[in-house]
Amino acid sequence: MKKGAVRGNALRVRPSDLRTMAFCPRLLFFEVHVPRERGIAELLRLYAGKVWHFLIELFSEGEDEVAAEGAFGGALLKGRADLVRDDAIVEIKSGRGPREGVWYGDFLQASAYAFVLGKRKIVIKYRDKEVEMALKENHEIELVEAIKLLKMIIEGYLPPPKRNSWCSKCPYREFCDALGEEGDDWFPKLPWVKTS
């Protein structure tokens, strides 16, 4: 599915785009509006992640790679949940988790799958830990607000950058640097970590 495709009145988005937006909203803008071919290092990292997913799914209970599609927050969310248990969505990540809680983008991605599939609990399984989180009403509101921001970016809004050490590895670094640091003051600074 093309990012940001419109189906009826609903904008179609992938829950993984929420993860990208939380990492860096401007990166999502570039991926949507200035797409490019992935380099060999990115492809190798993606392949290693697929192997990690396969190994975890092989030894885990639940149904793996479950299609998740449904309307939520004014958008049509469509993607594949890594693993679905009777009571939870399990999002498998090949990297390490933060010291406390989960990475905010992983929380948004797993929550989107959970709400679309009618689950009220998420589990994010990192290489070094596993975190379980019950979803509450405030999480639903938070996800709807994130989807509103994501829709704006897909529709053409250029958000401010979220500078960090990964910027030096970003394939869009030159574009981003040329655009400068400016951004609207109202655009929220999305957190790095979600603890509750």
UniProtKB/TrEMBL annotation:
Pfam families xrefs: Cas_Cas4
Single GO BP term: defense response to virus
Cofactor, how bound (note): Mg(2+) or Mn(2+) required for ssDNA cleavage activity.
Ranges for domain DUF83: 19-176
InterPro entries for this protein: CRISPR-assoc_prot_Cas4, Dna2/Cas4_DUF83, PDDEXK-like_dom_sf
Cofactor list: iron-sulfur cluster; Mg(2+); Mn(2+)
Cited Gene3D superfamilies: 3.90.320.10
EC number: 3.1.12.1
Keywords, comma-separated and alphabetical: Antiviral defense, Exonuclease, Hydrolase, Iron, Iron-sulfur, Manganese, Metal-binding, Nuclease
Keyword Calcium: no
Alphabetized GO MF terms: exonuclease activity; iron-sulfur cluster binding; metal ion binding
Function as written in the Swiss-Prot or TrEMBL entry: CRISPR (clustered regularly interspaced short palindromic repeat) is an adaptive immune system that provides protection against mobile genetic elements (viruses, transposable elements and conjugative plasmids). CRISPR clusters contain sequences complementary to antecedent mobile elements and target invading nucleic acids. CRISPR clusters are transcribed and processed into CRISPR RNA (crRNA).
Family of the protein in this entry: Belongs to the CRISPR-associated exonuclease Cas4 family.
Name of the protein in its database record: CRISPR-associated exonuclease Cas4
Lineage of producing organism: Archaea, Thermoproteota, Thermoprotei, Desulfurococcales, Desulfurococcaceae
